[in-house]
Amino acid sequence: MQEIYIQDGKEEWQTITQAAKCFGRTRQALESLIKRGIIQSKQMGLKNIMHVHVPTLQMYYSSKSNNNSNQNDNKNVSNISLHLDLIATKSDNKRLADLVARLEIELDTLKRDYSEERKYNKELQSEILKLSKELQSILNKDSGLMGWIKTKVKQ
């Protein structure tokens, strides 16, 4: 696209239509900026056509793109922060999952040990019952040592 600048001292000026084409904006958008006093303008030439001051227009749109890039940078920083938080959370979850797995293994081991202890206790109880029955039968018999003790006590 061909750009035509009108020199007025050191400043460059373009018609609103030319500037709109150059900056990829509409004529109405530039007129709005002129009305709000954001960019400079003046009527020039034989037909008093409205011209805009190109450097002020460039500064306005470059500052606007810097703000957008700052917002994008902030979004990028925010996204990186969220990504790091996600990685940390996944790491924490992995550690917790490992801990739960180890605790489940320990619990299974304790259950097995408890079950074995119960079996052993039942075996001991049956042995004690057998012994108590044998002792009772020994005490009830009149033969052997108990018989001799009973006879001595009666005398």
Q: Give the strand tally.
A: 4
Sheet-strand content, in percent, reads 5-15%
Task: Report the mean per-residue pLDDT as an integer.
Answer: 80
What structural class is derived from the secondary structure elements?
alpha+beta
Radius of gyration: 50 Å
Helix content: over 70%
**Shape verdict:** rod-shaped
Order of helices and strands: EEHHEEHH
Description:
This protein is an alpha+beta fold and 155 residues long. The protein has a domain at 6-68. 74% of the residues lie in helices and 11% in strands. A four-stranded antiparallel β-sheet has the order 1-2-4-3. Helix 1 crosses helix 2 (27-35).
Fold blueprint:
Elements: E1 6-8, E2 11-15, H1 16-23, H2 27-35, E3 41-44, E4 49-53, H3 54-140, H4 144-154
Antiparallel strand pairs: 1-2, 2-4, 3-4
Annotation keywords:
155 residues, alpha+beta, four-stranded antiparallel sheet, 4 helices, disordered N terminus
Could you write a compact summary of the structure shown?
74% of the residues lie in helices and 11% in strands.
